[in-house]
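request received
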Amino acid sequence: MKNNSLYNDVLRTLFSKEEIADAIKVMAQKIVDDYADKKPVMVCILKGASLFFTDLIRQIDLPITIDFMAISSYGSSTETSGNVRILKDLDMDVKDQDVIVVEDIIDSGLTLSYIKEALKSRGVKSIKIATLLDKPSRRKVELSADYFGFEVPNEFVVGYGLDYDEKYRNVPEICVLKPSVYNKQ
Ligand code: IMP
Ligand code: MG
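response:
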């Protein structure tokens, strides 16, 4: 392996490109069935969900619109603090809209419960959550996804949009990061 290969820091691969693509197809079909007569606004939570979002929306043959939101949460390097702040807000007015929030992973649930409340207060008609990954064992608030791809164990994962310290987002698979990478800091 090259000296600077990202895979030097990978413990093991959890989900391959093919498994991810298959899971997205299944989720997309469910969304198409549930929103058959609707025009949902699909909201990508930057940056982690960006790869998942672009693959997911290409499989949805409905008159959707898209928008983006960026959130920051201060905390330790591998944990959310709950101090959530909107860094980039939606361009669209979502009042009376059917919104689907697309996220990379639900861990404590703090980020998404904040986003959900923020969007509800704007008068959305409905709001659902689509997440590629779910770590239910780590939940601090009650929150569940309406659509999810995979459940993951209590390990820190990277790739397919997910980062550690802004790295590894471009790894095409979902991988467990070697704990030595974040423990040495
Ligand atoms: P929550 O607010 O604790 O649910 O955290 C959600 C956010 O934390 C996600 O959008 C991710 O950015 C980040 N996160 C949580 N777990 C992981 C992980 O295993 N790998 C990479 N990012 C993670
Ligand atoms: Mg994120």
